[in-house]
What we know:
Blueprint: H1 4-13, E1 21-24, E2 32-33, E3 37-38, E4 48-49, E5 53-56, H2 59-62, E6 67-74, E7 88-92, E8 104-107, E9 111-114, E10 120-123, E11 134-135, E12 146-148, H3 156-164, E13 169-173, E14 177-183, E15 187-188, E16 199-200, H4 203-213, E17 217-224, H5 228-238, E18 243-247, H6 258-264, E19 268-272, E20 283-287, E21 299-304, H7 308-326, E22 337-341, E23 345-347, E24 353-362, E25 365-370, E26 387-391, E27 396-398, E28 403-408
Parallel strand pairs: 6-7, 14-17, 14-18, 15-16, 18-21, 22-25
Antiparallel strand pairs: 1-13, 2-13, 3-12, 4-11, 5-7, 5-8, 6-10, 9-10, 19-20, 20-21, 22-28, 23-27, 24-25, 24-26, 26-28
Helix pairs in contact: 1-7, 4-7, 5-6
Amino acid sequence: MISVDEALRLVLSHAQANRPRRLPAAEALGLVLAEEVASDVDSPPHDKSLVDGYALGSDDFARGQTELVVVEQIMAGDVPRRALAAGQCSQIMTGAPLPPGADAVVMWEQTTTVGEPVSRVRIAEPTIRPGQNVMPRAASFARGQVLLRAGHELRPIELGLLAEVGRGEVAVVPRPLVAILATGNELVAPGCQPGPGQIRNSNTSLLLAAARRAGAVGLDLGIGRDEPEELARLLTEALAADVVLVSGGVSAGVLDLVPAVLARLGVEQIFHRVRVRPGKPLWFGVSPASPAEGKEMAKLVFGLPGNPVSGLVTFELFVRPALARLAGQRDFPRATTRARLVCDHEHRGDRPTYHPARLEAADGEWMVRPLAWRGSGDLAALVEANALALLVAGDYSLPKGATIEVLPL
């Protein structure tokens, strides 16, 4: 067996970002940018007013003039028609361009109109400085300026910025495609009533949701029976995806056929079995790139344990980081935190254990409560879990208040 850290190192050493693809910006939310984006315009495209009020030349106030002639009204989207001379101003709306001769805007609330209809305006504000209530042209960014660089994740903010600079299409790292195959003669579909010796297939639903939540596209290949030819057919189909998750069939039983079938299909085993609980039987291999067969990137293949909690834990520890790397993310999401136990806890075991737990903040620090858990088949215990408490190998007692490492889910 190898350690969790060594297993993760091996997984990530075989994971590389998918080849970029051009997509409509509207479909790129959550993806990683694969090119630089520069602006084709100045923003704002003109000196603009930040308030509703009157555009004027600050020099008039330097000469002591506080009553001005209104020569036009400028709305957002208008183009000023008249340049301002001494003693003149223009009524202006928020976002509208300043007319020539204006270098400041006084707020409407600081003025009094004179005449009906408005022909003159009296300014109550005692001082007017150049640039007051004005956003200069290109103050946000200038034409030709690089705004986004490769490696930047596209959030709603970035999609708005792409629209502002006219980029309807961008090069991005596409979402990884994850094929999921559950194996076992005992499995039936969730909508079926199990017969004697049968159980419903919960692993596919769990892993599909986990993959989608990790930003990947999930492909359900159904249930593979414990028969070499059927498994070979389904796994051949699965290897068209970027990542293959096989649930079950990787332990040491008579019907644990998956490793042998994968070897037959040319998948190279990298490791089998990890020093961890739950998840010890984890299998990982790589189907090498084969340009002649249209396989330009290596395929990552994970043989996950059949028990659902084991499948979830190994997904969080190894698959999620691999998906992040394939999606072009610079850092893989496996950040742990330190938390204090809210109760005494007894641990027994010769492997590091990722124990379902409840993590909460209290008085400015993280507190964690290990949940009652009856082993890797006890999926219901995880309903209250939002973290995995990392308990080092050994037989020992932890007192309330002890600090341990925790992996948030």
